[in-house]
Amino acid sequence: MFKDTVVVVTGAASGIGKQTAIEFARQAAKVVVADIDETSGTAVVADLTRDGHDAIFIRTDLTSEADCRHLITAAAETYGTVDVLVNNAGIEISTPLHEMSEQEWDRLVDTNLKSMFLCSKHALRTMVEANSGVIVNVCSVSGLVAWPGIAAYNATKGGVMMLTKSLAVDYAQYNIRANCVCPSIIDTPMTDTSIGHDASVKEEKAKLNPIGRLGTPEDVANAILFLASEKSSFITGAALTVDGGYTAI
Ligand SMILES: NC(=O)c1ccc[n+]([C@@H]2O[C@H](COP(=O)([O-])OP(=O)(O)OC[C@H]3O[C@@H](n4cnc5c(N)ncnc54)[C@H](O)[C@@H]3O)[C@@H](O)[C@H]2O)c1
After folding, report:
1. Domains defined along the chain, listed by start
2. Terminal-residue alpha carbon distance, the chain
3. DSSP string, 118-170
4. I need a labelling partner for 159 at 20 to 30 A (CA). Which of 49, 111, 128, 153 fits?
5. Is 220 a pocket residue for ligand 1 (Cβ < 6 Å)?
6. Is residue 153 annotated as a catalytic residue, yes or no?
7. Residue nearest ligand 1's atom 19 by CA
8. How does DSSP classify residue 12?
9. CB of 120 sitting under 6 A from ligand 1
10. pLDDT tens digits for 1-59?
């Protein structure tokens, strides 16, 4: 479905981003793996190329405009263009708001929101010129409802939600679509860090979803590929929940 489509995935060294890179590669896309974690990012690309896929790793600190500019330029120089941008990278800091330092707030906002502005800004220059492109942002159910105890994270995801809608409205005239996915808890290294490895804790969290299990990186990657594909050609500015029914209650 994505033969020769050039796809940039941020935060693709781990979790949802890694699985998204794998799924695009399986669909014959040319995949640009961007991450600050050079060891894991290089390993993802080594696995993909060993399996016969076309992929490169570009070390990127997504909080830096110079790095984001370099990411998009290097992708376009290597593969000729950027057709799809998946803004996925994010972090969670769960310090209560009244104890949160300015540095923690800035790190969250820079990683979760500014990074999406910066990568979109530079990818849009290529996409506008091509009169074609798709952006998929990884938001969260916490962009829709306030998840308890992570106020600053929720605020960044609220920003991602409105950035997505604004991209959709402003760039539809250039044949560019922008959508986001809103996962509830997904079983990734981020979740292991925030709730631990204890199976009973994971079972309790899974009960929050009417479907009764945690999401998998594949669940989210599938939704991202749908929003990047021609099958969603009349969908823009949308927030697709991938939450086992969490927000339906
Ligand atoms: N895991 C969940 O339960 C869940 C739920 C909803 C939304 N999300 C969102 O999904 C996205 C991916 O989360 P995940 O669970 O796969 O996390 P993860 O921790 O497994 O992977 C995140 C990746 O982002 C990279 N990264 C972090 N800061 C970076 C920076 N400054 N520059 C470049 N790369 C950077 C990390 O190195 C890592 O490889 C995030 O935006 C997260 O907010 C996750």
Report:
1. 6-186+217-242 (3.40.50.720)
2. 35
3. HHHHHHHHHHHHHT-EEEEEE--GGGTS--TT-HHHHHHHHHHHHHHHHHHHH
4. 128
5. no
6. yes
7. 190
8. T
9. no
10. 899 999 999 999 999 999 999 999 999 999 999 999 999 999 999 999 999 999 999 99
